[in-house]
Amino acid sequence: MAITRDIFNLSGKLGNVIYYKRNGQQCARSASEKVKISEESIKSGTEFGRASNAGRLVRTVFGRIIKNMTDNGLGNRLNTKFFKVINTGPVAIKGERQVTDGDLDLLRGFELNRDSSLSNLMYFIPKTRIEAPDKINFSISEFEVRHSFKAPESATTIVVQIGCGVFDFPAKCGYTLWADDIVLSFDGKNFEGGSIDFPLDNTEGKVLITCAGIYFRNSFGGMIKNKDYQAGELLDVVLIRDGKIVKFQYPEPVKPVVDPDDPLQSISWNFGKQG
Questions:
Q1: What is the distance between the alpha carbons of residues 197 and 130, in angstroms, rounded to a whole number?
Q2: Which of 62, 186, 225, 275 is the most exposed place for a label (fewest CB within 10 A)?
């Protein structure tokens, strides 16, 4: 900011300089320059906003598992992943693309805690079977508790959480169906296996995401707050349309068109001669 000390008394904009008075003194400052944002940048910004809304919705709907995570970067990681999903959608409608226009398989296996993975803490993954459009089945085979988990030394109890989210991303809404927590003791019997069905309703145009998480408790019943022993994962991610699971199709690569009237350029062999 410049302060003038001459006899002129100016107010307003002159060229790229704005003149004004402050505390009885004549002041001047440069006018801010207008930055023109390209149409492509506006489209990308719009779609990143949709990705951020989708990430926020997933964090809210799966809050029962995510509240046990200690990953402060989860929001940014999830938003970035959703933006990648949207970017796989048709280029012709860039700026209008939704999460449901892209490759949702990119979300499969997404870890909710960057410090530990679900498969690192429990040596089995619940199997899911989606019977579109109205049922999802989870099943877990029989296993020996003592040798099926990587747990901290102070752990006496394992808690496994399983849920299914139904998401309407364009409408920014969703809900979750939760199974009862599976609570296992290292001193107890082996897990005998089990299955559960989630009845679904009104799934048309919705995205179904199954999720599992794990944490451990100590002998006092409290959760062991160690980032290396808390994990969650998005297991299956599917879109339902017309009562069926929709498989994303990447566009076929464009093949060069050869003009039949254009003679091929080739180089002939000189047989019997060596260079």
A1: 10
A2: 275
- Each residue of 56-92: pLDDT tens digit? 999 999 999 999 887 889 999 999 999 999 999 999 9
73, burial (CB in 10 Å: exposed 0-12, middle 13-18, buried 19+): exposed
Q: Which of 39-48, 111-120, 169-178, 266-275 has the lowest mean pLDDT?
A: 266-275
- Look up the pTM and report it: 0.79
**With the CA atoms of 73, 75, 77 and 81 taken in that order, what torsion angle do they form, in degrees rounded to the nearest 10?**
180
* DSSP track, 195-250: EEEEE----TT-EEEEEEEEEEE-TTS-B---GGG-EEEEEEEEEEETTEEEPP-P
Identity of residue 251: P
CA distance 161 to 61: 14
